[in-house]
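Case study 2.
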Amino acid sequence: MNKEQELAEAGRFVRRFFELLDTNPAELTSMFDNESSVFIYGRENGTTVGVDGIVGKLTALSSKGCTHKITTMDSLLCEREDRGILVSVNGRLKVDGFDHDLVFSQMFFLKTKGQSFYVRTGVYRLKYLLERVRIQGF
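Prediction:
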């Protein structure tokens, strides 16, 4: 793949990630490997490593009836020894039972695996939370 194809494939990967996160997070297993780590800002023991732990945590969070809407996505090809793609996503998060959307950001460092990618490292953060809105588990 050339640079433009890699960046386009990374965009498709990230859109598919959020689609699965919202509809069937158990299917996210192919998007991680045992070296993957994800940090969810604001959670005790926020860093989780490995496929089972990450998918388990994301499944638990998704059980709250969340829907992500990507508003911006930027990608940068990292062409060093640890070649990969850094992806920054911003968006809105709708949680069932709440009137106001939340704003989130997520950073992915994607590594190649065959003809696709996996999440090597991810960082997720809710950027805006109304004082009066408290979500159990976040």
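The chain has a mean pLDDT of 85.
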